[in-house]
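input
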Amino acid sequence: VSSFNPLAIRSYRKFGPHATAAIYCRDTSVPFFLRHRECLIFSNADIKKPAREIALASAGFETGNKPVIIWTVNDRETVTRMLDAGVTSLITDRIQDFT
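output
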């Protein structure tokens, strides 16, 4: 389960030890504390799920002690760079380009 809402992620944990992912992005439609890694603290999520722009601005593409799934990456060169750097997985709109 993944969500922008860290409280929803925390609440979901009461149903069992399912993996959870905290989504964060810089979009101004998202509350400030959900635009950065702070949402990981509030949610206690198992997986980091940053937007592509955040990952590209980070020296290590947000990799660290938690698995990382980056969204939305649609070009092969960026996919290759991110996977080579240790990103766990990617979300794309162009799946046909990666078959």
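quick obs: Residues 3 and 22 are 6 Å apart (CA to CA).
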